[in-house]
Amino acid sequence: MFTLNMSLFYVVSNKFILWQEVYECPIERRNSRFERPLLGSFFLAFGVLFIILYIPCLIVIIGKKSRAPVYLLMLALAIFDILSLIVDSICTGIFDILGISFCNYPLPIFILGAIGGGSWMAGSLACILLAIERCAEINQQFPLEFLFRKSVFPVVAFLLLSYTIYAFFFTKALVFSAEASCWFFDPMIGKDASLYHSYPHSINNFAVGICTIILYLYLSYRLIFKFGYSTSMWLYKTKRQIIFQAISLCIFHATAAFIYEYMQFFAPTPLLIIISQFVWQWSSGAICLAYLVFNRTIRNLVVKMILPKKIRLKYGLYIGVDEHIAFEGAVGNTGAAVVNAAGAAIKLDNFIN
């Protein structure tokens, strides 16, 4: 009952009034401020950067109009990550700069915290499913491959949607503390801290930390040892990019999950609190960087969307077969021979997913 009363569902169903028994702030804390402009500017700047980079990736994923499980999961994860970035970066930066904590604006911060916590939990499940899908792609005998069959995946999508609704509306919300520059479940108003512990978040965090490590280790193992040695430069680059992408995603998600769980059970140091907020920010933003650096399909489509065709042809950033042929025709017969001899092998990955 406590959990329901401390959830967004309770607030929405009670005329947007917080449960005063656990969220009523002392008078002396309602006007106190603790400004951290330098740290806030850091979180705000990187948040804006990540969102600017993520939005073209999201547009490209939507533009694919694909019903393949991998793209549907990437779409869901992109939405959850952008929502997380709004809370863990944009709002965190603004609150740090202005010195705003939960007691200054209880209701708006509670709602933002519910969105941030819900998007983290839902994004965690989407990230795990995406990791399973990647494992199934490289090994058709993977035990969980059946989850992505046409007859089964709609059930998986429904469960993801149900978990998202639960995470947003029926779990305890995070609240912001400017003194710590971090989001906690405990508003630090003098109540028993155990009242605010969120067991659903604990289960979620342990699951995402353990599952992502196991799945991406399996993925890397299959690529390195089971595929064996190859003289193909394309295959070598592809394996290397997938492994780097897996490492970049796994490190931030697992680290964020385990640090936040540590902070729920033990008293963290100020440095660890700042690190936890930084890692949460990068667990949401690193994925768009991984797309743009390691995913040729998304990177090429983003470049094609942003840069005019004339600029792409001028600098050899031909994305499709038609533009590749146009580029070769523009440089003439002599240049074409050079491009065909040297450029084809280099630019072949432009045509590969």
Keywords summarizing the entry:
mainly alpha, transmembrane, Rhopdopsin 7-helix transmembrane proteins, two-stranded antiparallel ribbon, 72% helix, 14 helices, 7TM_GPCR_serpentine_rcpt_Srt, transmembrane helix, globular
Describe this structure in words.
- By secondary structure, the chain is an all-alpha fold.
- It has 2 domains: 2-305, Rhodopsin 7-helix transmembrane proteins (Rhopdopsin 7-helix transmembrane proteins, Up-down Bundle), CATH 1.20.1070; 310-351, no CATH class.
- Helix content is 72%, strand content 2%.
- The chain has 14 helices and 2 strands.
- The protein has helices at residues 2-5, 8-13, 20-23, 27-30, 37-63, 69-98, 106-138, 153-169, 199-226, 233-265, 270-294, 296-306, 309-314, 321-347; strands at 175-177, 182-184.
- The chain has a two-stranded antiparallel ribbon.
- Strand 1 and strand 2 (182-184) form a beta hairpin.
- The longest helix is centred in the middle third of the chain and has 33 residues, at 106-138.
- The radius of gyration is 23 Å and the shape is globular.
- Mean pLDDT is 83; it is low at 324-353.
* CATH top level label of the largest domain: Mainly Alpha
Quickly count the helices.
Answer: 14
Spatial order of strands in the largest sheet? 1-2
Mean residue pLDDT: 83
Number of structurally distinct domains? 2
